[in-house]
Amino acid sequence: MRIDQREAILRLVPATFAYAFLQVALRFKDDADLARRLKARDPHVMSTLYERYGRLAYSLIFRVVRDASTAEDLVQETFLRVWNRAQSFDEQRGALGPWILTVARNRAIDHVRSAEGRMLSGALELDRLENPKLFSDLEDSALSIDRARRLKAAFEKLTPQQRTVIEMAYYEGLSQTEMAERMKQPLGTVKTWVRTALKTLREELTEAMLA
Amino acid sequence: MTCEDLKDGFELYSLGLCDAEERSEIAAHLERGCDTCQKNLRGALALNAAMFASAPSVRPRRRLRRRVVEGFGVRKAGWGWLWALAAACMAAIAVWLSIQERRRTTELAEIRQNLIEVSSERDRLAQAFNFFNQPGTRQVNFGSAQPRPPRGNVFVNSRLGVLLIAGNLPPLGPGRTYEMWVIPKGGAPVPAGLFQSAGDGSAMHLLNGPMDVASLGAVAVSVEPQAGSRAPTTTPIIVAAL
Predict the structure, then answer these.
(1) Minimum mean pLDDT range among A64-68, A179-183, B50-54
(2) Domain boundaries in chain B?
(3) Region A196-208: what's the mean pLDDT?
(4) CA-to-CA distance for A59 and A113, rounded, in angstroms?
(5) Are A207 and A161 part of one and the same domain?
(6) Considering only residues 36 to 95 of chain A, which have any Cβ-Cβ distance to chain B shorter than 8 Å?
(7) Using CA atoms, how far apart are residues A145 and B215, in angstroms rounded to an integer?
(8) Residues A67 and A114 in one domain
(9) Which of B47, B52, B55 is closest, CB to CB, to A205?
(10) What CATH topology corresponds to B138-241?
């Protein structure tokens, strides 16, 4: 690379950082405004909320239930639940996106569990774990495209067994005991796969956030 | 258990997939307000969210948006009226273009017809000019003695035929036409073609083809029915004796 090219690139670096920072700041500001309107029971906010998170929620739910019609029902249920529980959401510190996706995933897992007649008591647990208060001071930008891409790349690097257990946890809602039964593997082995895989993903996400 | 023992369990805990023992341990730490565990939980929720967001993107059907939003009593100001307006404008433009097209087609047909007529007239004039220039063309004048008679000239040429140029022709009644006759010496009139006059009463008619001029006695014109006659049915209005 020639020196003048390098200098030109170096000159662009601060501008790039400033732009990225501005994007994140605007996103936070927008989400905070959405959350404020949500708490104020402004029904028009649902249109913007759907524009921003509808496709993500639908994709996630569809990944779990594998049926378009059911996924549509569950997306509607997700947004209704967000509307009903928004009063507990902290609009200043809360991360709207992660909360909505958690609600969406839990609705889908709850549906699959109900359909399969397993762990009906787990519904209460899921309900507790999507409490809006839990999503305060969270890194909202975990949903950025760049981080999703890096996480996906890290996921692809996992061993096949590790990928399988992670998919079972996130998209099928199976406990480690259920995974062991389905894979016909000792529980200890499955636990090792799960923890190793999660550790790898966690480290990748941390690096992505620091980058 | 210590916070360090629990640090790898927060993702499963937040997914609702922890074993009962580990779940109660983590819950106890969180209820105590343990900072390390609170931080670990936030990290786990962020990882979970990123994992959720990395699900393969699928575009939902458009109706889902309407279904979700209208569930909250919100009706998006539709753009239907705009489409209707656009459709009405398009229809109006289509009608206008159709009328313009029809008008242009009519004009074009008229122009084409005029062109054909002009072209035909030009051909006839060229033929007449050719007629005049040919050696052996004989000219006979007629009608000059009458007060307001049809007047004009007959040109005969043994190779080209007979050319009649006339003026002051009387107007024709409906269903009538002029018919030219060539009359051999001592013979009966022979039909030599039908023609019409122009608005000013002038006409030019050519009987094309070789002709025995020596045996030709006269050229005459009479008013006949539209389809013509085999022999004159009215008194000839022009008789040019050769």
Answers:
(1) B50-54
(2) 3-68, 81-133, 138-241
(3) 87
(4) 19
(5) yes
(6) 43-44, 46-47, 50-51, 54-56, 58-60, 62-63, 68, 71-72, 75-76, 79-80, 83, 95
(7) 108
(8) yes
(9) B47
(10) Immunoglobulin-like (2.60.40)
Residue type, B5: D
Q: What number is the average pLDDT over the span A30-53?
A: 89
| Residue A11 C-alpha, separation from nearest chain B C-alpha, in angstroms | 32
Enumerate the residues of chain B whose CB falls inside 8 A of the CB of residue A139. Answer: 42, 46
Nearest CA-CA distance, residue A131 and chain B, Å: 11
| Interface ipTM | 0.81
Q: Supply the mean pLDDT for chain B.
A: 89
- Please name the residue of chain B whose CA is at the shortest distance from the CA of residue A42: B72
CB B239 within 8 A of CB B200: no
Task: Name the residue of chain B whose CA is nearest to A44's CA.
Answer: B74
**Which amino acid does the sequence have at B155?**
F
Q: What confidence tens digit (pLDDT) does each residue in B11-67 have? A: 999 888 888 888 889 989 988 888 899 889 988 988 898 888 888 899 999 899 999
pTM of the entire structure?
Answer: 0.58
Please check whether residue A123 touches B, CB under 8 A: no
pLDDT above 70 covers what percent of chain A? 78
Residue A107 belongs to domain spanning:
1-139
Helices (H), chain B: 3-6, 10-14, 20-31, 35-53, 62-70, 80-133
Angle at A207 between CA A175 and CA A154, to 5 degrees: 50
Same domain, A77 and A4: yes
The CATH number assigned to the domain holding A192 equals 1.10.10.10
